[in-house]
TrEMBL record, chain A:
Source superkingdom: Eukaryota
Protein name in UniProt: Signal peptidase complex subunit 2
Pfam families reported for this sequence: SPC25 (PF06703)
Coarse class of the protein's main subcellular location: endoplasmic reticulum
Keywords: Endoplasmic reticulum, Membrane, Transmembrane, Transmembrane helix
Presence of the UniProt keyword Protein transport in the record: no
Membrane topology according to the record: Multi-pass membrane protein
GO biological process per UniProt: protein targeting to ER; signal peptide processing
Transmembrane annotation, as ranges: 40-58, 70-90
Automatic annotation (TrEMBL), chain B:
EC number of the protein: 3.4.21.89
Taxonomic superkingdom: Eukaryota
Annotated protein name in UniProt: Signal peptidase complex catalytic subunit SEC11
Record bears the keyword Nuclease: no
GO cellular component terms, semicolon-separated: signal peptidase complex
GO biological process: signal peptide processing
Keyword tags: Endoplasmic reticulum, Hydrolase, Membrane, Protease, Signal-anchor, Transmembrane, Transmembrane helix
Topology versus the membrane: Single-pass type II membrane protein
Pfam families per the UniProt record, alphabetical: Peptidase_S24
Oligomeric and partner information: Component of the signal peptidase complex (SPC) composed of a catalytic subunit SEC11 and three accessory subunits SPC1, SPC2 and SPC3. The complex induces a local thinning of the ER membrane which is used to measure the length of the signal peptide (SP) h-region of protein substrates. This ensures the selectivity of the complex towards h-regions shorter than 18-20 amino acids. SPC associates with the translocon complex.
Length: 230, 171
């Protein structure tokens, strides 16, 4: 996946881009993704659209009088399917971004489903996880993190901290991907990496005096510093 | 932009777009079924019903209950002519066991509508010619459609503007 730049103040952008990155990471860990939820959604949606398309065509060809009774049923079925689709999205998918299972010697066979959500105007990514094994034990997890953990100032997604975050929060992923679980401990210990992640307020406090000094003393040095960054 | 998407993501995006269009269409058809009228909302095109209706008024029709009375305002379509006409019922013949027949006239016209009917037709047949009776209206909001049909170049301008917006917005 090419690194795409997103608008860091757009919460839908932050969420959608993160939602896309999550299955990419998990499938790279040999999780087998199940597309059942999406496939049902597509089937419901496209059946409705096809019914509307046929209605349009028949109405166009034959006119109202000949298609009247037929149209009644088409409308009824269309809105039933549409209602089923809405129900499916809100009550079954519930923001699901990944469903799948892993079968590895270290963890055995386990299934995992991850749903994500954001609150309005709040740049925090909320995750709900459901892990279950063949014995029928199911574990639920809920956690969240600000998007700043895995987006840099310019709006580029940084995979490493995101993967470390998931690996340390979800034990199953930690077991499958121990490298990233260990990485998180190290990252937390080193203050330099964390200060970059922690939110803009702190960063401003860091940046302002530097900038002021730089502007007063030698404007050229500021430019060269920026040049290196970009 | 669409190239990087997975097939399912692409299908989902397309579905969202298709659902917007199809839902609009099916709502219209649903309204048609509910009112039993092929075209339950029409725009007044002429001043022949002034002062009751002005050009550009949006009319809501109801076509259930076929026993139309004198004084009701109906919309009818003459065979062989495309444009529906909104006029008031001034005479009725038949009804009951016989098919109901109606004569209409525009409030603002001097003569009744026999001139407007098809050649050799002296009255309207309720069950086949009438699209519906007017049950409600919103003044003026339909004027855009009149402007568009009277000045076809406006359609070109509007399409051009939409095209420019799509290019500028990139979404």
């Amino acid at each position: 996946m090419a690194a795409t730049k997103i608008a860091v103040y757009s919460i839908p952008d932050l969420k959608n881009n993160t939602d896309d990155a999550l299955p990419n990471y998990l499938t790279s860990l040999k999780f087998k993704q199940s597309h059942f939820l999406t496939d049902v959604r597509l089937a419901l949606g496209y059946s409705a659209v096809i019914i509307a398309a046929i209605t349009f065509y028949v109405d166009y060809k034959l006119g109202w009088d000949k298609t009247k009774s037929w149209t009644f049923w088409a409308v009824l079925i269309y809105f039933t399917l549409n209602g089923a689709l809405t129900f499916w999205i809100w009550d079954v998918e519930k923001g699901n971004v990944f469903a799948g299972e892993v079968d590895q010697p270290s963890v055995g066979r386990q299934s995992l489903s991850v749903a994500s959500s954001v609150a309005k105007h709040t740049p925090i990514y909320n995750v709900k996880v459901e892990c279950s094994n063949p014995e029928g034990e199911t574990k639920f997890l809920e956690f969240s993190s600000p998007f700043t953990r895995w987006y840099d100032v310019n709006g580029f997604f940084v995979a490493k901290p995101f993967q470390q975050w998931l690996a340390s929060e979800i034990p199953l992923i930690g077991q499958v991907d121990p490298k990233n679980k260990g990485g998180e401990a190290k990252a937390a210990a080193s203050a330099t990496e964390n200060s970059e992640i922690k939110g803009s307020v702190q960063q401003d406090r860091y940046d302002t005096p530097n900038r002021l000094v730089a502007n007063d003393a030698a404007p050229t040095s500021t430019r060269s510093r920026r040049g290196k960054k970009g | 932009m669409l190239g990087g998407l997975q097939p399912r993501q692409l299908l989902t995006q397309l579905l969202n777009f298709a659902l917007v269009l199809s839902t609009a269409f099916m709502l219209w058809k649903g309204l048609s079924v509910a009112t039993d009228s092929p075209s339950p909302i029409v725009v007044v095109l002429s001043g022949s019903m002034e002062p009751a209706f002005q050009r550009g008024d949006l009319l809501f029709l109801w076509n259930r209950g076929q026993n139309t009375q004198v004084g009701e305002i109906v919309v009818y379509k003459v065979k062989g002519k495309d444009i529906p006409i909104v006029h008031r019922v001034v005479r009725r013949y038949g009804g009951g066991d016989e098919p109901l027949q109606l004569l209409t006239k525009g409030d603002n016209n001097l003569a009744d509508d026999t001139e407007l009917y098809a050649r050799g037709q002296d009255y309207l047949t309720r069950s086949t010619d009438i699209i519906g009776s007017v049950v409600g209206y919103v003044p003026f909001v339909g004027y855009v459609t009149i402007l568009l049909s009277e000045h076809p170049w406006l359609k070109t301008v509007l399409l051009g503007l939409m095209g420019v917006m799509v290019v500028l917005q990139r979404e």
